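<derive_structure_tokens>
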Amino acid sequence: MTKKLFYDNVYQKEFTANILTLNKIDEKFHIELNQTAFYPEGGGQPCDQGNIENIQVSYVYEQNNKIYHVIDKEPPKLHLLKCSIDWQRRFDHMQQHLGQHILSACFHELLDAQTVGFHLGDEFVTIDISLNTISNTQLKRIEYFANQVVFNNLHVKQVYPTASKLSKLPVRKAPTVTENIRIIEIDEFDFSPCGGTHPVHTGEVGLIKIRKCEKVRGNTRIEFVCGNRALKDFYWKNNHINAISNLLSVKDIDTFDNVERIYADYTLQKKKIKNLKEQLLDFESLTLHQNAYTLNDTKIINKVFDDRDFGELRTLAAKLVSHPNTIVLLGSRNEKAQIILSCSNEMNIEMNKIFKEVCPIINGRGGGNAHTAQGGGDDLSKIEESLKTAEDIIKNQYLT
């Protein structure tokens, strides 16, 4: 069985080892060493990465109590291989994982809430807490308490208790295994069964920052970052706040109030612009209807616009066909050719059938119903032709 050096000394970065087994699976080599400092994936913590004889270790996993290291090339020898772990990745995982223990313990201590889920991702860490709701005041209190645990630099140790000893420990949750139970103790503040890697002092977590929370299946998911991740998170947020404050010529502490004011003004102006556009469309539809070509008491509007928003064009068509005995054939030439064919509700014209005949002219696709059909294609030069063809079909088949 592989000796787990990461439990003997969590700070060990380099070691030498001998190969016990070597298997080639799907062009990858899975090797078992007699000892390893590489932590295998498990318990919510990602695996370590690094090198074995300058060959990258991309994945480490444990199967049937054996630890396998996945590499791309076959090692040049079987004995005394020089191995090193990616310390930056390992220490990041240690910071996040111990931060999770601390944060979960604080939720348990202050709100009597259990941690029912844990995920250590590449950017953020999440825990699912057995609370349906949580207030900002409670979150602030939890975060403050957690960081006091960090700042007090409490000692963290691993304990392998006997069954009788375990029964006397105030463990926060029951172990999932019955043998070789490993308890992570934070200086009598928290006792939690765990197989992961953690710093030996809480101060090494650096900082615990809750980013946000959301409801997930009756629980509350807390997203947070610790240590260097918290520093990185603060760095970009501070840059953004400073950039916004410079843009608005206000103090950084006043940015939210100013952005809120600007957004409220934007919303109001947007509403006013929408109302004005609606009035313009009313006027435009009235003008188009009055100047429309008439055939057998039926108004026909056939027009192509350049750079016209197609959603606006649909609204215009709807306003036009609200008049009786009106046929609307509109096109828009933007990045692609778009057309809409529509008629008043009382008219017995199969616009979807006509659309299918003229849509290929613009190399397009779309659909609709008997009163309205629409779609788009990539042949911008054929919009007028497609609408003219549609008009001819209507005149010959429905208005003669």
Summary: DSSP finds nine helices and 22 strands in the chain.
